[in-house]
Amino acid sequence: MQHVKVPQDRIGVLIGEGGSTLREIESRAEVRLDVDSENGSVAIDSVGDPVLGMVAPDVVRAVGRGFAPEDAMALLDDEMMMFELIEIDRHTRNKNDMRRKKGRLIGENGRTRELMEELTGADVVIYGSTLGIIGQPEEVEVVRRAVEMILDGAPHGAVYSFLERKHNDLTSGFNVRQNN
């Protein structure tokens, strides 16, 4: 049995209307979820396929970190899909720095976050002090590197160029030249 903490304001999303989301996760991941809505703790007990059961905590964590349940359940559809969480606050000195860096990751009118999604194919969600990524390993890697560039203070133009270069690498299949 595993336990995952879910923020209070995401418990309702995890449960869904009349428990529908909870039941869908349980049936697709072959687990039993026991949600303690008082403290946000979710106990996950595998009752079927152990491989699916190992993915279930990531599905619950992803919903808890701001992903729509449908996006989080994509982790169950493809064994190559992965979920990664970047703690933005580990790269900040104080609340103001956190606000500024979060703003840089989101971009004007959400454009930077959108570009990360469009150019990699991964889903990207910024929630609280974290940035979550769901995608194929190479997509997640590109988003992670772009996020690190932004958090390290790189100009947006340089990050967008990097994303476009990587987008071309990802979509052109095998590429003899490795552009880093």
Number of distinct helices: 8
Rg (CA only):
17 Å
- What is the string of helix and strand elements? EHHEEHHEHHEEHH
From the 3D structure, determine the CATH topology of the largest domain. Answer: Ribosomal Protein S8, Chain: A, domain 1
Instruction: Return the average pLDDT rounded to an integer.
Output: 94
Helical amount:
40-55%
**Could you give a short account of the major beta sheet?**
3 strands, antiparallel
Query: What's the β-strand tally?
Result: 6
Task: Domain count, please report it.
Answer: 2
Description:
Pfam families: KH_1, KH_PNO1_2nd. Residues 1-81, 82-152 form the K Homology domain. It comes from Haloferax marinum. InterPro entries: KH_dom, KH_dom_type_1, KH_dom_type_1_sf, KH_domain_protein_archaea, KH_PNO1_2nd. Keywords: RNA-binding. By secondary structure, this protein is of the alpha+beta class. The protein has 2 domains: 1-74, K Homology domain, type 1 (Ribosomal Protein S8, Chain: A, domain 1); 80-176, K Homology domain, type 1 (Ribosomal Protein S8, Chain: A, domain 1, 2-Layer Sandwich). The protein contains 8 helices and 6 strands. The protein has helices at 11-15, 20-29, 50-64, 69-77, 95-106, 111-120, 137-151, 156-171, and strands at residues 2-5, 31-36, 41-46, 82-87, 123-127, 130-135. A 3-stranded antiparallel beta sheet has the order 1-3-2. Strands 4-6-5 form a 3-stranded antiparallel beta sheet, with helices on both faces. Strand 2 (31-36) and strand 3 form a beta hairpin. Helix 3 (50-64) packs antiparallel against helix 4 (69-77) and helix 6 (111-120) runs parallel beside helix 8. The radius of gyration is 17 Å and the shape is globular. The protein starts with a strand and ends in a 9-residue tail after the last helix. The model is unreliable at 175-180 (pLDDT under 50).
